[in-house]
Amino acid sequence: MDFRKELVQIVEKSGAHSAWSVKHCFRVYHLSKELSSHLTLDDEVLYAAAMLHDTGKSPAYALKNMDHALRSKGVTANLLPQMSYPSEKISLVLDAVENHMYYSEPGRSDEAVYLREADILDNLGNIGLMRLFSIVGQDDLIQTPEDAIERARLFADALPDKVSTKAGKRLAIKRREETLRFLSGIKRQTLEYAWL
Q1: In whole angstroms, what separates CA 23 from the centre of its chain?
Q2: Phi then psi for 142, rounded to 5 degrees?
Q3: What would the DSSP string read from start to end of the chain?
Q4: Which of the chain's ends, N or C, has fewer CB atoms near its CB within 10 Å?
Q5: 35, 58, 51: which is closest to 163 by C-alpha?
Q6: What residues of the chain score a pLDDT lower than 50?
Q7: Which of 99, 106, 122, 101 is nearest to 29 (CA)?
Q8: Choices 3.90.180.10, 3.60.10.10, 1.10.3210.10, 1.10.3720.10: CATH for 1-106
């Protein structure tokens, strides 16, 4: 079986919440390609990293009290050698997976940089808001709609500064504005969140 199909099946069978499911992985993969269209990235590396970057969050692989990026790296290190994946590219995938979070420094390769950018941007704007509200009550940090609003506000303030490429910065500004428009509207329509 083609490694791309295998990776999709792994994510689909992992029990991942829709916020981190295969659709999130596809968005990250395609946005990485869009942001880096002026470069030639290794598509096999980018695809594998995009598919596996959040596996450490899924019920099939998560470990309590372990950072999901590190867990995802471990899962990836175990899975890729068992597949028809080129062994000489595994270290590049591992670097991208380990360093995909906004609180990490970007990885060493262009693939790692653009994967991280796309993942950060998937937490902003309309799609980021949808993802936040989809995990209310299912995430330790987001137990209520008010928690989701606070996290959206924090993301709007902090995440654009975590993006480093020109294309990423342009999109971060647009998605931040989408988030702020939403928050402003919700505030007006709920008597400053009292009726949320």
Answers
A1: 11
A2: -130, 80
A3: --HHHHHHHHHHHTT--GGGSHHHHHHHHHHHHHHTTTS---HHHHHHHHHHTTGGGSTTT--TTS-HHHHHHHHHHHHGGGTT--GGGHHHHHHHHHT-STTSPP-SSHHHHHHHHHHHHTTSHHHHHHHHHHTTTTBTTB-SHHHHHHHHHHHHHHGGGG--SHHHHHHHHHHHHHHHHHHHHHHHHTTTTTT-
A4: N
A5: 35
A6: none
A7: 122
A8: 1.10.3210.10
Tell me: domain 123-196, CATH 1.10.530, correct? no
What's residue 139's pLDDT?
Answer: 86
Q: In this predicted model, what pLDDT tens digit does every residue of 66-116 receive, in sequence order? A: 999 999 999 999 999 999 899 999 999 999 999 999 999 999 999 999 999
Q: Can you give the pLDDT at residue 63?
A: 95
